[in-house]
TrEMBL record:
Protein name (record): alcohol dehydrogenase
Cofactor: Zn(2+)
A Pfam family that the UniProt record links to this protein: ADH_zinc_N
Catalytic activity reported: a primary alcohol + NAD(+) = an aldehyde + NADH + H(+); a secondary alcohol + NAD(+) = a ketone + NADH + H(+)
PROSITE patterns linked: ADH_ZINC
Family note: Belongs to the zinc-containing alcohol dehydrogenase family.
Length: 376
């Protein structure tokens, strides 16, 4: 079928809305009519080259929600009309990682940036000129329609608004899990959240719900610091340097048992600064993405050893997509998790460049693209 999508044709160029040709679902695939797509910083990394895809053009978008309109052969868990979230981490349920309870490290993840469909290693999306299109993390939610493998699809209740559900494809479980799973925040602990955009605000809520004593939010944007206080932060600071003495005094210089780094772009030179906020025996969780070519890190190895600190990487917050996405939406329905107020603005697909400008200039916690009858 013919539809449209937001494509990147080269680095450091704006998104361009183009006509694309979408193939029919093959075995174990589903076609989805999209209703909402979240605008995550990771898609901006495609533009800068921080996340290198297998080629160009690239169809962006890895957060989204919609409804199933067609299923391929062998699909038994989904039917036409089902409401679903697209998980940027697929979960096959059969590989060694999935069987070991680490579904966020599913073997299908090795194919996320190649652009080829999991089912048969062919391209499901083409431009009007017949070029292969590389969809972000095998998804490409910046299009009104998608064909994806069932491993990337999670069924949800039909009474959940699509814009709420969309954020659970990446930002909410990544942030919340960074605190509660990878960070394992315990009641009474002191926690610092570095960067309070979409992922950071979810991490902040995770720390609060887990029972943290103090949750310190650090972000250079004043408006985001104000929002962090509304989501449960106890104090907010513009920088680690500004926060150091205040956090020290509040923790009797024990510092934070958990530090969760959710900045838009991680730089290796900052790692030791974040570790300086981390308590003896504490854990610093690196959630934000750095450039894949960056191998230089500043870290005091002696202090890492002598103070027995932990530097923990995480993807998807250590969450299990098939399990945790429905659970987080259950918390939303129960009023325990505030997702609605994380959505700052909604955009049309043709406003995508405006949305990313707003994100980069600190005006959004999360922007969301909404699809309408005009798009379908």
């Amino acid at each position: 079928m013919k539809t449209k999508g937001a494509l990147l044709r080269e680095l450091n160029s704006p998104w361009k809305i183009e006509e694309i040709e979408l193939g029919d679902p093959k075995a174990h695939e589903v076609k989805i009519k999209m209703h909402a797509a979240g605008m995550c910083h990771s898609d901006h990394h495609l533009m800068t080259g921080g996340i290198p895809m297998g080629g160009f053009p690239i169809l962006g978008g890895h957060e989204g929600a919609g409804e199933v309109v067609e299923v391929g052969e062998g699909v038994t868990d989904f039917g036409v009309g089902d409401h679903v979230v697209l998980s940027f981490i697929p979960s096959c349920g059969k590989c060694r990682s999935c069987e070991a309870g680490r579904a966020n490290l599913c073997d299908f993840g090795a194919m996320l940036l190649q652009g080829e469909a999991v089912s048969d290693h062919t391209f499901r999306i083409h431009t009007a000129a017949g070029e292969n299109v590389y969809p972000m993390t095998l998804l490409g939610t910046f299009s009104p329609y998608m064909v994806v493998h069932e491993a990337s699809v999670v069924k949800i209740d039909k009474d959940i608004p699509f814009e709420i559900a969309a954020l659970c494809g990446c930002g909410i479980p990544t942030g919340y899990g960074s605190s509660t799973r990878s960070g394992d925040v315990r009641p009474g602990e002191d926690v610092a959240i570095i960067g309070v955009g979409g992922v950071g605000t979810a991490a902040l809520q995770g720390a609060v719900i887990a029972g943290a004593r103090n949750v310190f939010a650090i972000d250079p944007v004043e408006w985001k610091r104000e929002q962090a206080m509304k989501f449960g932060a106890t104090q907010a600071f513009a920088s680690v340097e500004e926060a150091m003495n205040e956090i020290g005094n509040a923790t009797e210089w024990g510092m934070c048992q958990k530090v969760v780094v959710t900045v838009g772009e991680v730089h290796g030179a900052d790692v030791d600064t974040w570790m300086s906020l981390t308590a003896k025996g504490g854990t610093c969780v690196l959630t934000g993405m750095g450039n894949m070519m960056d191998t230089q890190v500043t870290l005091n190895l002696a202090m890492l050893t002598l103070l027995q600190k932990n530097l923990q990487g995480t993807i998807f917050g250590g969450a299990n997509p098939k399990l945790d996405i429905p659970l987080l939406l259950t918390m939303y329905k129960a009023g325990k998790l505030n997702i609605a107020d994380m959505i700052t603005r909604e955009y049309r697909l043709d406003q995508i460049n405006d949305g990313y400008t707003d994100m980069l200039e600190g005006r959004n916690i999360r922007g969301v693209i909404r699809y309408t009858e005009e798009d379908w």
